[in-house]
Structure to design on (573 residues):
């Protein structure tokens, strides 16, 4: 259409604002972060170049590993529940009957509310003296006295927070799985039925293999999301006990802001960004394939 | 898809669906219930499931908490609206260009524009904060909206580029033959035929900005600039009652949740289609 030089210039003009914005507010901060990570800097004193010292310190930092391993533990706990649970919900509701559509809509509602806000909701539900979770457990006779869910024991906190986040995001995977399951060609399904396959066999031999790419994709998105967890821990445990539940992002936040170790915080950020990058690249490769 | 299964298994599926709906809605219902309990009941141990009395005490306390609820609602709303405006102003022309113009180095530019997809913004907040502090954009709704726009830009660009790319060439050519400039073609042909994509982009920008927590926490240190999630998170430890004011906290949760749920229920199909194309394609 606009094959002329003028077309090129016009095209550039349309692109320029977005490009300038991204250069200013994404590329520049990224470069500055890399620069900061090579300096020792605490706002009050001028930055001093220290080479890779900050990175060396990261790997010898006990709290870095505590945070990283705790984040992995959280990810390992929540991901299978989200994927298996989301898939089962999708199998249940993929058919377009009114009740199933309503169920899908309802399961998806928590996805659109904020993670911070849902954490405040669950902070109350899981509180020992005022929360309904302990009240219900005691009424059912499952426990004799209120369980101290949040901020006292790292594993209990992990469990409670994971439960709240499952409630919050399980609909995300479900919706994408429903889309994939509905895209399974009707003929394939019918052929397998003619061959006498039962529902269970159809799920494991036909539907699951044909939706596997979406399953992998949602798994990656969930893993990335969990590795970046912050809001729920900041709000529900504040990292307690003794920063045992401070996730990786939480530790970056602590160093950069309350502690003002800017260079060190930047090095932690770089390590985090590279970890996430590995997963994102796999995700993008997976998505690209579908366009071909 | 699945053959219609009647009889017992049909009822079983129905019962399971209803049970799932109940479990998913219960926490939200409990929050609303807690927000309308009278002050003493909201602070009672053990807590009641269903309010024994009804009152708006918690909402009244929230209304006048610190700077007052209207300030925080305005901060959240203004940031979200600015984020929508910035996102559309930047990505509509950019997506048009990527979809239709022979810009040199287009592929590279597209990758640069999508950079924020690859680098999590959580990792970039410190340099962003320092930069914003230098140019006076901390404690500014404008600044927070810029941050939210940076987060939301790649997704929006991607959705809009795909939508503009699908506009039939003939429509555009007809407009050009009629003497329309490229800008007029954008406004008269591309924008009207991509309304669903634009609604999707605006919807995601609103929900992200309204809910975003960490960026706001880093950028806003002045209480008068807090967004709703920030003031609620702050209120969980410091209230006039000494301990946590659970009733007021849940009143705040209820108020934050309402716009998201309303917008989602009204624009559900845009939300779901955006999710599908953003996440899987």
């Amino acid at each position: 259409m606009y094959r002329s030089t003028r077309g090129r210039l016009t095209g550039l003009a349309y692109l320029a604002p977005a490009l300038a914005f991204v250069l200013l507010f994404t590329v520049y901060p990224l470069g500055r972060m890399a620069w900061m990570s090579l300096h020792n800097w605490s706002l009050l004193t001028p930055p001093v170049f220290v080479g890779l010292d900050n990175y060396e310190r990261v790997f010898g930092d006990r709290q870095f590993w505590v945070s990283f391993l705790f984040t992995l533990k959280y990810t390992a706990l929540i991901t299978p529940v989200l994927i298996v649970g989301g898939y089962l919900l999708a199998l249940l509701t993929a058919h377009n009957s009114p009740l199933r559509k309503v169920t899908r809509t309802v399961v998806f509602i928590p996805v659109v509310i904020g993670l911070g806000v849902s954490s405040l909701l669950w902070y109350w539900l899981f509180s020992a003296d005022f929360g309904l979770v302990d009240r219900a457990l005691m009424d059912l006779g499952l426990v004799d006295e209120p369980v101290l869910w949040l901020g006292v024991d790292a594993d209990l906190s992990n469990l409670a927070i994971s439960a709240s986040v499952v409630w919050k995001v399980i609909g995300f995977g479900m919706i994408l799985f429903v889309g994939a399951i509905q895209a399974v060609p009707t003929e394939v399904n019918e052929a397998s039925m003619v061959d006498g396959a039962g529902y269970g066999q159809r799920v494991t031999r036909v539907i699951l293999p044909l939706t596997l790419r979406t399953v992998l994709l949602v798994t990656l998105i969930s893993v990335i999301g969990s590795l970046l967890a912050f809001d729920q821990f900041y709000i529900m445990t504040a990292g307690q006990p003794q920063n045992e539940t401070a996730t990786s992002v939480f530790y970056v936040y602590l160093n950069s802001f309350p502690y003002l170790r800017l260079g060190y915080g930047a090095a932690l950020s770089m390590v985090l960004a590279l970890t996430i990058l590995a997963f994102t690249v796999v995700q993008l490769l997976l998505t690209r394939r579908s366009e071909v | 898809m699945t053959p219609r299964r009647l009889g017992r298994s049909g009822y079983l599926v129905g019962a399971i669906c209803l049970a799932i709906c109940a479990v998913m809605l219960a926490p939200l219902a409990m929050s609303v219930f807690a927000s309308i309990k009278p002050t003493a009941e909201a602070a009672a141990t053990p807590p009641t499931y269903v309010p024994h009395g009804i009152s708006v005490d918690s909402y009244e306390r929230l209304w006048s908490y610190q700077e007052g609820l209207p300030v925080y609602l305005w901060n959240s709303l203004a940031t979200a609206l600015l984020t929508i405006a910035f996102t559309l102003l930047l990505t509509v022309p950019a997506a048009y260009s990527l979809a239709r113009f022979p810009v040199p180095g287009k592929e590279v530019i597209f990758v640069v524009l999508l950079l924020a997809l690859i680098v999590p913004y959580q990792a970039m907040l410190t340099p962003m904060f320092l930069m914003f502090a230098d140019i006076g954009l901390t404690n500014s709704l404008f600044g927070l909206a810029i941050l939210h726009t940076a987060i939301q830009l790649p997704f929006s660009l991607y959705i809009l580029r795909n939508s503009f790319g699908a506009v039939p060439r003939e429509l555009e050519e007809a407009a050009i033959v009629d003497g329309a400039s490229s800008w007029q073609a954008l406004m008269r042909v591309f924008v009207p035929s991509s309304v669903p994509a634009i609604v999707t982009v605006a919807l995601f920008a609103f929900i992200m900005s309204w809910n975003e927590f960490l960026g706001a926490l880093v950028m806003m240190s002045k209480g008068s600039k807090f967004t709703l999630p920030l003031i609620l998170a702050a209120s969980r430890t410091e209230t006039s009652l000494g301990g946590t004011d659970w009733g007021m906290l849940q009143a705040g949760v209820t108020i934050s949740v309402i716009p998201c749920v309303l917008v989602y229920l009204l624009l559900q199909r845009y939300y779901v289609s955006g999710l599908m194309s953003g996440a899987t394609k």
